[in-house]
Amino acid sequence: MIDVQINEVPLKEHSPSMDNCLDEQKLLYDMLLSREIDNRSALVTRQGRAWFHVSAAGHEGLAVLPQLMEKNDVLVPYYRDRALVLARGMSTVEMARELMGKATSHSAGRTMSNHFCDKENNIFSVVSLTGTQCIPAAGAAWASALDNKNGLVVCGVGDAATRQGEFYEAVSFAVERRLPVVFVVSDNKLGISTSTAAMAPYRLGIFNECLIRRVDARKPETVFPVAQEVFNKARFERTPCILVCRMDRLDSHSNSDSHKLYRSQDELEALQDPIENYVAYLKEKGTLNDQDLAEQKESIKSDVAEIFERVYHEEEPDPESVSTYLCNRQGAPVVHVEMEAEETQVKAVNQVLDEALSSIRMCCYLARILRILKGVFLVSPVAYLPAILIALLMPPFLKPRLLAHLLGCPLVAGVRLLNCNLSTLLGWASTSYSHNLAL
Fold first, then answer.
1. pTM, to two decimals
2. CA angle, 70 as apex, 66 and 73 as ends, to 5°?
3. Tens digit of pLDDT for each residue in 26-44?
4. H or E element: which one contains 221?
5. 226 or 6: which carries more pLDDT confidence?
6. Does the N terminus or the C terminus of the chain have fewer Cβ atoms within 10 A?
7. Are the C-beta atoms of residues 186 and 159 closer than 8 Å to each other?
8. Residues 91 and 216 in one domain
9. What's the confidence (pLDDT) of residue 347?
10. Is the Cβ–Cβ distance between 215 and 246 less than 8 Å?
11. Local structure of 273: helix, strand or coil
């Protein structure tokens, strides 16, 4: 286990996030904008201008959360967090570029749709493998804690992905280290077409209830006070939390399926729209009328249509650049260590590790596959023998998956060298955008 001392952080006497009031009109705008971008994205996909679309309709209630975040906080979203990242500051232009895979997009046209990312607003790139975003989220929170700052990390995750091992690992590490992170679970009770009602771990009693707070995001105004309490406890008391947000997915999983095939008519009719609920709430308060709502919707619709049309005519990625960004960025420092002894892999690895530990201010080794015995990393092929024997006895359809795991070099897959200062540990200095990642 890595032995790192986390400094105690005293509660600040005052912080904007502690006494924020809900900006009701901004929340309404962000929700309407997210819905209109969804509508326009579906349209351009049907037109053949985009290839894949994942709707976030029904998840707009989470747009309230960025009102409780500060500039240096980090948002690690998942693919249905459109309203969340819009409210955090990602622009409609960037969303259109990302959807249509333009050369001007944050990934230079290299990511799938709904892989949101915005370096300027500390929005970490969406990861394709669901649940895996929880690990870097915990890492970013750890960096903030080690830096002795009152930073907060908000990590979005779907309810089905909470069954993934990465979610358990991230939550366990956050609790162990008392990290300032909140895992925001979008609980729409569906994993693509499978109901999660009887399988979500927070409904099975897997987690201690003291870790969990629940809120109905179908009524966005109710999210704010609960999230404010949770965020402040995570930020100032280093109390991580799983914030389960109940919501309804109003559309199919994506444009490639139809939810009418796996949802009953009664279920479809019972779905609640957070925008309709919030509009009714504002009207009851007397802060919104039909005319103002109609004018705002029309203005947003016109703006989004104009932006999408303009982005459609922007530059496409050059096929010749397909290999760009696959390796380290041009101009980035490269360290070459002359090997004292290259007769064995173990000796070479140990020398590199010694060099890093002696020369880099903050260097952490996280290892899963490797065993450490008296300071020596054992990578003997003998260690593979039990697994190989098991593989020989396994059913044929399971062998490829196991062999793929076994044959992956443990020195690459099992060890991550974080040879950087705290700012790069967060990922912004060298590995923020997905096309800047050097693996």
1. 0.76
2. 90
3. 999 999 999 999 999 999 9
4. none
5. 226
6. N
7. yes
8. yes
9. 77
10. yes
11. coil
Asked if residue 71 and residue 191 are part of one domain, the reply reads yes
- For 43, the domain range is 24-255+263-316
Q: Which of 152, 169, 187 minimizes the C-alpha distance to 75?
A: 152
Distances in Å between the Cα of 162 and the Cα atoms of 17, 74, 96, 249 are 27, 20, 29, 17
Based on the fold, state whether residues 83 and 173 are members of the same structural domain.
yes
Q: Are residues 369 and 278 in the same domain?
A: no
Reading the block at residue 164, the tokens are 């993934």
Furthest C-alpha separation in the chain:
78
Radius of gyration of the chain (CA): 24
**Is 410:371 a contact under the CB 8 Å cutoff?**
no
340: which DSSP letter?
A: S
Q: What is the mean pLDDT of residues 197-203?
A: 93
Instruction: Report pLDDT for 322.
Output: 82
11 secondary structure, DSSP code: P
> Does residue 75 belong to any structural domain of this protein?
yes
The number of folded domains in the chain is: 2
Residues 65 and 211 in one domain: yes
CA-closest candidate to residue 167, choices 189, 125, 137, 190: 137
Q: Which three-class secondary structure string do you get for 60-92?
A: HHHHHHHHHCCCCCEEECCCCCHHHHHHHCCCH
In angstroms, the CA 367 to CA 67 distance is 37
- In this predicted model, what pLDDT tens digit does every residue of 82-132 receive, in sequence order? 999 999 999 999 999 999 999 999 999 988 899 999 999 999 999 889 999
- What are the φ/ψ torsions at residue 14 (nearest 5 degrees)? -155, 140
| Residue 327 domain-assigned (yes or no) | no
Q: Write the CA distances from 238 to 96, 146, 209, 230, 241, integer angstroms.
A: 37, 12, 17, 10, 10
> Is-contact 312 44, C-beta < 8 A?
yes
The DSSP secondary structure of 15-50, one letter per residue, reads -GGGS----HHHHHHHHHHHHHHHHHHHHHHHTTS-
Tokens read off for 221: 């105004």
How far is Cα 21 from Cα 140, in angstroms, rounded to an integer? 27
